[in-house]
Amino acid sequence: MLRQIWIVSALNFKSLKSRFWQSMVIVVGLAATIGVMLSMLSVAAGMRQAYYASGDPNRAIVVTKGVEQEGQSTIARAQAPLIAVAPGIAKDKDGKPLADRTLMTGVPLLRKDGSKGFTSMRGLSEKGPGVRPELKIVAGRMFQSGKRELIAGVGAQALFQHMQIGDKVILPDGEWPIVGIYETRSQLDGQLLGDTETLLTTLHKPAYTTMLVRLASPDSLDTFKKAMTTNPALSVDVVRHSDWYKRVGDQTTFALALLGYVVGTVMAIGALFGCLNTMYSAVASRGREIATLRALGYGALPVAVSVVLEAMLLSVVGALIGAGIAWALYDGKLDLFGNVVFHLSVSPRQIELGVTWAVVVALLGGLFPSIRAARRPVVEALRAT
Amino acid sequence: MKYLPLVWASIMRKPTRAVLTLLSVMLAFTLFGLTIGMNATFAKFQEDAREDRMFVFARFGGLVPIALGRQIESMPGVEVVASSSFVPGYIHEPKNRVFVQMMDEKVAKVNPEYPITPAQWQLIRNNRQGMLVSKSQADRWHLKAGDTLTIASPSAKKLDGSTSWTFKVAAVTPDMSIFGQGYMFGNYDYMDKARLLSDQGKTGQFRVKVRDASKTVEISQQIESRFANSSTPLQSLTEKVAFDVSTNTGMDIAAVDRDVALAGMFMVLFLTANGLAQAVRERFAEFATLKTIGFSDNGVIALVFAEAAIPCVLGAALGIGLAAIVSNVIPRFLPPGQGLPIPTMSVMVFVWAALSAALVAFISAALPALRLKQMDIATALSGR
What is the pTM of this model? Predict the structure, then answer.
């Protein structure tokens, strides 16, 4: 049986050359479908990756109760010490808790092409670098606390004007120099960092945005959370940092991903009709060949399977071409969506997804023609011109 | 026209192929309609954006003292300054997101194009908790005038410590294209007086209308520089820039839309061109017969072009129709109040679709037509 399938399929593939342009309909259809879908998904996927990379299971974020976005949270100055002394927080070498009072605000900047853009500016307090060990200075130096200085992320430097060391950013009380460039390999790379207390005074903000703490161990979240939620002086939510960014990432990219899938689905159905068309013609043009095989004693099933296999080969080739184009054009490219700087991503997992779609299209597109091929009476097919 | 039955018979020779081709073309044009329709919406935003208006808000986030609005209003060339802030929240469950824009009494002057009558604006002035709800939002939450609606808003805390905001639907008003999923307008004073003391007397943004549209950019710069060193530095965006999708997303979405539409067209072009080439090949002898009985070269070629045009034009029409239906259905599945644009089937979309369909048909038919023109009748008739 398997041998029969093999022989019939091999025969099909050999005759593909004579049906080259017709077969290209499937290849081009799937290449266009998967190419477009993966290109669109590269935005959502890249953004999601940047968000996911920003979280850390060893950290917990403290936000105003009920808010879903960092920007909507406020932690009063008086509450910060209460949070920092809670159990479950890791201690620094000096014995002080690794708790960072953070500040987040939008900052308008000019993009490299001269158009207006936005990114976030964050304040880090003295324990900020300890809470975020992934933060590496790649050029210049760290800002000094108490001083009006900023450091810029590598992504921000790549996308916005005037982000070199020595450049100035205009803030309410004057110009702040950029003294260093940092990298975290996360969404933070598209932002600017400065000293929380200095920024707070300069921007006349009444409160911190969030508190970010390093947990003594990933298991101490519950201890910390309990201390936070049972303290009547606080009305906050405590979320593991990785979970927080997972939710934010999923929520922010949901509509974008949905759009990619909707476009992909519409195109895939279009490609499916093209596939059906081609396979019906293929079966019709090879009617006599198939009938001869059947007359020689080959079963109906191997003939049917060989038709589906042919559709599948063509689809997968198309999908790989499309995925290859999307990968070559977009994978790893630095981009900006809203105020999030990230790298577009066409990952092996997405290419796998593209190939899976192609296989599904081929299965559906090959099935009916294969049934027709297998059920056609041998005598009739042999007589047909 | 009299050859239509002949063309039709040629197409229906292989009904499966004809139907599959038509469906494929239809889907490509559905996609075309949605993407180019989206671009039409963006273009409409730009067209509707007025030159003489701008938004002014805090450069580094947060609220702006309302007093600054009065200072802006006294600047030369500024006609009127309105304030609006918003209550983001949800109805019953966090997934039912809504977004209430709290407008002061001057918004009606700055945005006279809103389809809201002075009497309706007056309703929310008379009752602080009054709310104007657009038709689509009213349908979505089953609201009618007189209903009470409570919105939970964790980030908009009230003076009494609660975070729930109660509104009374004063009127249901017509939708407008700039708010794709509808809108909810409340009274700014309700928000201001109910808020924490530290937030009172402040607003999210000013809507500034200037007297002379040609001065907008100049005044916008004056506002920014005047408050640059104040405790609340301001940022201004003219309506043209604010309503430009690339400002908001940082991406050239219109170009992405065009690329997607193009990919779809490329896909069907391949399909129709191949289908037609095959059909002509199969019926080569028949075309020779037509020529023999007196059809001119051009006559035969015209038949081929017609055979290519019918599925393309029909598919394009069906596809754009489907896109129009989908555009009407999409908003019902989107979280409301996020201002996501919805494709519009404007005249330009139809024009572009018709042109594309014609182009696809033309290219598909070109090669087979050339072969027919160069055919040797005797050879073709003999079936070799």
Answer: 0.83
